[in-house]
């Protein structure tokens, strides 16, 4: 098929062996490859998570942590598994040593009817798929396609820089973000408003993107991984800068809380961080009297007050202080994480906020799940609540 072509009646791969939670554990002996995790991810509202392996797919509830679906193939793998909310609709991409279907195609599957009902075929491997009730987004290395869910026809297509990771994020309100055509640039598309623009988010290449639930806020991380930027998607205004640390790290995953007041992220250093999204960073403190700058007493206000004081000192000290001013000013206005959790293994992790109050869920590619409790007021280390193997 041609690049971006569709088929409404694809030639289906071999059928899944339908299984129930009751005897799913016995499948590990019959299909040992089921433990080889190729993909983990959450649904759109973080109420469920999915797992793709060398021999099947699984779906778990994030609230009860119970297995909802287990579908096993005869030794064929799934490199990408996306589920639409809590429905029976999946987007599947083959992967692993023996792909279930071509890694260059997205297969649309209805688990309730046990049938494949659509195919999106391409000339190059699919890097990511995002499902929303009205549209489907498919990311290739150099292009992002947007399809109508109803007709499977192409609605939009965008050129990107090399995007091996398949970076893109969507919101049901019709917002899409993906890499632009320049290093560190993010393309923002708002379908309902029929507007689009670019944000120069970082000087180095992008490593991770995330939108909040209504698509109004965007979080970006670069390959350096020390700073995370928060932008407003209606006009590209930068609202806040978060500091993960001083040493570089690869950011694997980021997610906003349901109320958009918190952001959680995971990285290659093995630590999961939770940040508070500050409402008062939208408007910078007014440079009036010194006492007014620190009246609120919050850490971020103190940082900004220190930054302004440093700028004032630098102005009187002359240009010899300009380099220190630039470095220290940027450091002072970056907000540190509120809570942290150290993973016992160095596994790659996907993170999200759980439906249970003040919890995060961490999904690792070694098949481990960690549910942790955090204190949104005092902060500090997260407390492990549950840990088990889901693959």
From TrEMBL:
Cell compartment(s), UniProt: Preautophagosomal structure membrane
KW Transferase (keyword) present: no
Pfam families membership: PROPPIN (PF21032)
InterPro entries: PROPPIN, WD40/YVTN_repeat-like_dom_sf, WD40_repeat_dom_sf, WD40_rpt
Highest taxon above the source species: Eukaryota
Keyword set includes Repeat: yes
Main location per the UniProt record: membrane
Gene Ontology cellular component terms for the protein in this record: phagophore assembly site membrane
Keywords annotated in UniProt: Repeat, WD repeat
Topological category with respect to the lipid bilayer: Peripheral membrane protein
The family this protein is said to belong to: Belongs to the WD repeat PROPPIN family.
Name of the protein this chain belongs to: WD repeat domain phosphoinositide-interacting protein 3
Organism of provenance: Ceratodon purpureus (Fire moss)
């Amino acid at each position: 098929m041609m690049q971006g072509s569709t088929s409404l009646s694809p030639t289906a791969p071999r059928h899944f062996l339908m299984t129930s939670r009751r005897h799913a554990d016995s499948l590990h002996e019959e299909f040992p490859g089921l433990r080889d995790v190729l993909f983990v991810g959450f649904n759109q509202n973080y109420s469920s998570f999915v797992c793709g392996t060398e021999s099947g797919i699984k779906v778990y509830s994030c609230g009860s942590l119970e297995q909802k679906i287990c579908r096993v193939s005869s030794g064929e793998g799934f490199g990408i598994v996306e589920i639409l909310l809590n429905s029976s609709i999946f987007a599947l991409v083959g992967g692993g040593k023996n792909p279930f279907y071509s890694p260059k195609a997205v297969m649309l599957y209805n688990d309730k009817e046990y049938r494949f009902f659509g195919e999106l075929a391409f000339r190059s491997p699919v890097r990511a798929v995002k499902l929303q009730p009205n549209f489907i987004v498919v990311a290739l290395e150099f292009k992002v396609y947007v399809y109508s869910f109803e007709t499977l026809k192409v609605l939009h297509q965008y050129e990107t820089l090399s995007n091996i990771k398949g970076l893109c994020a969507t919101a049901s309100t019709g917002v899409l973000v993906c890499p632009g055509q320049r290093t560190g640039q993010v393309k923002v598309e708002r379908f309902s408003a029929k507007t689009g623009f670019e944000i120069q988010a970082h000087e180095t290449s992008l490593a991770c993107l995330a939108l909040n639930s209504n698509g109004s806020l965007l979080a970006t991380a670069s390959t350096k991984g020390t700073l995370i930027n928060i932008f407003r998607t209606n006009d590209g205004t930068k609202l806040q800068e978060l500091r993960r640390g001083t040493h570089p790290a690869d950011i694997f995953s980021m997610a906003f809380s349901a109320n958009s007041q918190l952001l959680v992220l995971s990285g290659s250093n093995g630590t999961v961080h939770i940040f508070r999204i500050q409402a008062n960073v939208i408007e910078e403190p007014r440079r009036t009297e010194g006492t007014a700058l620190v009246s609120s007493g919050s850490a971020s206000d103190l940082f900004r007050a220190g930054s302004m004081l440093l700028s004032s000192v630098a102005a009187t000290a002359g240009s010899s202080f300009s380099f220190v001013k630039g470095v220290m000013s940027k450091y002072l206005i970056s907000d540190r994480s509120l809570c942290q959790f150290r993973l016992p293994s160095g596994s790659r992790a996907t993170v999200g906020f759980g439906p249970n109050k003040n919890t995060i869920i961490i999904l690792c590619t070694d098949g481990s799940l960690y549910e942790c409790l955090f204190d949104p007021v005092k902060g500090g280390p997260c407390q492990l609540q549950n840990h088990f193997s889901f693959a």
